[in-house]
Amino acid sequence: MFVKPNEPIGVGRGINPGRVAWVHSPGVANWDGRTGLWVEDRWNRQDKADAMIREALVQLTGEKTTAKAWKALFRHFNKTHNRGSRNYRHGEKIAVKLNMNNAITHHDTIELNSSPFVTLALVRSMVKDGGVRQQDIILCEPSRAITDSIYNKVHREFPNVIFIDNIGGDGRQKCEYYADQINYSTDNGKMARGLAKCIVDADYLINSALLKTHSGPGVTLTSKNWYGATDINLLWRQNAHNNISPDKRHGKPGYKTFVDFIAHKNLGQKTLLFLIDGTYGSRDVNGAPAPKWQKEPFNGDWACSIIVSQDELACDAVGMDILIGEWPEFGSLNYCDEYLREAASIPNTPSGTVYKQDGVPLAFPLGLMEHWNNPKERKYTKIDLKYKRL
To answer: 4 lies in a domain?
Structure first.
C-alpha cells in the first residue's frame, strides 16, 4: 500500500465527518456455493437485509430511528449544496446506481452483481422510512442490464419505481446519455466522457457498490462503480480503461481517473449515500461469489456485511481494508489505494496532478483516507468506524 496504517490523509465529510457504519449480520446470505443461483430466496434472508439497512443508517447518522436518519441525510445534503437545511420534496428524483457489471441480459446469472435483497431493503426503507415516493426512485445501471431477480422483487412491491438499464425492454427503460459531461483533469485518451441522463438529471444519487477485488484497479468499490454511469459499451473489451489501474510493480504515482469521478458534480458530489454491499463479497471480479471468508469476524461464512458512509474516500478505505485483510496475498491489490491517496491529498497530490472541475483547480481534499492498524483490531485514528453485529 502507498499509505501506512493509521496515517490519515484528508478531511472527513458527513454529519459525523469521516464516519463509516459497518453492519455485520451472519445468516443474511446462505448460498451453499453449488446449488442453483445465489440470488434465490431460499439462500437469503430478506428480513435480515431490511434490518441491516435500517441499522446502518441509524449508526451512520447517530439518530434514534431510520425515519430521522433519512431526514438528517437529506437535510445535511441540501444544506451543503446551498438548498437550505430541508428534507426531500416530492418530485425530486433519487437515482440508485447499482453494480450489475456481470450482466448483459435480463436473465439471472450466477455471477456476483447487486443483491436483490439489499436493493429491495434499500427501496423499502426509502419509501417507508424516508417518505420517498416510489415514482421518484430510479434504479439504474447505465452500462449493463438489470436482471430479473432485482426487477421482479422490487417491481412486485413497488410498481411505480423506475428501472433504467443499457438494453431496455421487459419493464426497463433504455438509458440515454448526455455527451461530453466529463472533462478529465489530464488528457485521458479514449475514456468515455458522456454520462447517463438519469444520473445527470437526478437531484440525489445513491452509489450501491459491491465488495470485490478487481484485476485492474485492485478493488471494485464505490469509485469504480461510477465508470458504469458513463456512456461505455455493453461489451467491456470495447472500452478504454485509461488511468484506472495503479503501477502495481513499481508504485510510481500517477493521475487517476477515479478522482475525477469522485470530484464530479454529477457523480461523487451529488451522492447522498455511499453503500458497499458485502452480503456475499468475492475475491474475483467475475464468476460466482467465492470463496467464503475465513478470517475474523467472518470465520468461514460469507461476509454478510453492509458498509455505508457519506464520505466516499472513507467508505472505500474501509471496504479496501476488509478485502486486503482477507486476501493479503492477492497480487492485484498492490497499490490499490493510490486513487484514495490522490483524492485525499488535493491540492498537493503525490502525482503532481492538478485535478479540476469545470476547468477550476480543486482546492480541498475530497474526503478522509486512512488504513486501519491491522485486520484483527481494526482501529482507525480519524475514520470513525461504527461496527455493529446483528
So the answer is: no
